[in-house]
């Protein structure tokens, strides 16, 4: 291939990549999550509006990314204001559900691993964990080759009366506040998008 053809192919490639990069950059005037007012978790019940939504969010949350367009659209066209609490900020850490205490209380040692094989204790009925309709369990190996049934269903407070009673189990979570009181509480992708549509 001669140098003129190589130069033309290289030029086309550079133009294509530049166009691709430009198309991926945020457009001027395009809203992002950063354009929505951020508040501290402790301010969740103290905004000046009669009614508003508080969205507990994290930048690294894949579920938050799934609802981002719905949140941005709502922030432009929704009837009530929406505020963001960044749960990745250390100032909001006290508002997380205490998963460590939860696991300390509810996880159960159900057996052990010997020579690479799982051995369930004789007094354990594994079907009780696998068929539990109220609690999601996972079976994991723990320290000292223990086999542990890990309790994955939180017992969060879905009716907090104040910011000090918040126990956010995960993101996305949204609260709807009306006249300083909780009127709706949603966790998860479909649930939070549903709140935005009400």
Q: Distance N terminus to C terminus? A: 63 Å
Strand content is 15-25%
CATH evolutionary superfamily of the largest domain = Glutaredoxin
Report the total helices.
5
- Helix share bin: 25-40%
Average pLDDT over all residues: 90
The CATH architecture of the largest domain can be named as: 3-Layer(aba) Sandwich
| CATH structural class of the largest domain | Alpha Beta
Instruction: Choose one word for the global shape.
Output: flat
Written description of the protein model:
This protein has 5 helices and 8 strands. It has 198 residues and is an alpha+beta fold. The chain has 2 domains: 108 residues, Glutaredoxin, CATH 3.40.30; 45 residues, no CATH class. The termini are far apart.
List keywords for this structure.
single chain, 198 residues, alpha+beta, Glutaredoxin, 2 domains, 4-stranded mixed sheet, 4-stranded antiparallel sheet, 30% helix, flat
Topology summary:
Blueprint: H1 3-24, E1 51-57, H2 62-77, E2 82-86, H3 99-106, E3 108-114, E4 117-120, H4 126-130, E5 137-141, E6 146-151, E7 173-178, E8 181-187, H5 189-197
Helix pairs in contact: 2-5
Please outline what is shown here.
With 198 residues, the protein is of the alpha+beta class. The chain has helices at 3-24, 62-77, 99-106, 126-130, 189-197; strands spanning 51-57, 82-86, 108-114, 117-120, 137-141, 146-151, 173-178, 181-187. It has two domains: 32-96 and 155-197, Glutaredoxin; 107-151, no CATH class.
